[in-house]
């Protein structure tokens, strides 16, 4: 994929997730089960390396899970806009005080009263490797009509919006 096309893909991805307050952060627990928890994406834009950033408790299960198995999924849903994003990536704790300060907010302080120097605060980077998105452009009425038509004809609807796949370099 050309660099310009790749940049446009990143922009589409960020446009879909930037206003979604909470994501479901999924890890594989040591018993093999997948566990999802709501987390707040801390960055206000994709950084130059297309990373997502989170604050988590160092003592929490998510950190223990991804330290053992770094492949994670972060999913976003905006049901009002009918847009959905699934991001796969590699999670890791990053020891970067400047980045913590850059991402810090009053909301984070509610969870970590010691601020950016709170000993329990883990700065977590998810390096995006792959993403899929579904962005339905049709109104609810048009969607219902197309689904009803599909039910009658037995032919699934194929034009209910845009689906895209993004692979990171």
Describe what this molecule looks like in 3D.
- There is one protein chain.
- By secondary structure, the chain is an alpha+beta fold.
- The chain contains five helices and seven strands, in the order αβββαββααβαβ.
- The longest helix is centred in the N-terminal third of the chain and has 15 residues, at 3-17.
- The model is unreliable at 138-150 (pLDDT under 50).
- It has helices spanning 3-17, 61-68, 97-103, 106-111, 140-153; strands at residues 22-28, 34-40, 51-57, 71-78, 83-93, 121-135, 162-167.
Q: How many strand elements?
A: 7
- The tally of helices reads 5
Percent of residues in helices comes to 25-40%
Q: State the end-to-end CA separation.
A: 9 Å
Topology order in helix (H) and strand (E) letters: HEEEHEEHHEHE
Structural class: alpha+beta
Average predicted local confidence, pLDDT: 83
Q: In terms of quaternary structure, what is this? A: single chain
CA radius of gyration is 18 Å
Largest sheet, if any? Answer: 7 strands, antiparallel
Q: What general form does the structure show?
A: globular
Stretches where pLDDT is under 50 for at least 5 consecutive residues are 138-150
| Proportion of residues in β-strands | 35-45%
């Amino acid at each position: 994929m050309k660099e310009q096309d790749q940049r446009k893909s990143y922009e589409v991805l960020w446009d879909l997730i930037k206003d979604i307050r909470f994501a479901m952060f999924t890890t594989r627990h040591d018993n093999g089960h997948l566990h999802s928890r709501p987390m707040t994406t801390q960055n206000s834009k994709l950084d130059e390396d297309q990373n997502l950033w989170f604050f988590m408790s160092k003592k929490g299960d998510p950190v223990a899970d991804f330290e053992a198995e770094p492949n994670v999924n972060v999913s976003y849903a905006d049901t009002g806009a009918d847009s959905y994003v699934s991001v796969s990536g590699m999670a890791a704790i990053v020891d970067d005080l400047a980045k913590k300060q850059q991402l810090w907010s009053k909301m984070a302080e509610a969870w970590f009263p010691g601020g950016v120097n709170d000993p329990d605060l883990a700065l977590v980077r998810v390096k995006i490797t792959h993403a899929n998105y579904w962005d339905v452009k049709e109104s609810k009425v048009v969607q219902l009509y197309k689904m009803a038509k599909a039910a009658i004809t037995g032919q699934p609807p194929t034009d209910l919006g845009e689906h895209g796949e993004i692979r990171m370099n």
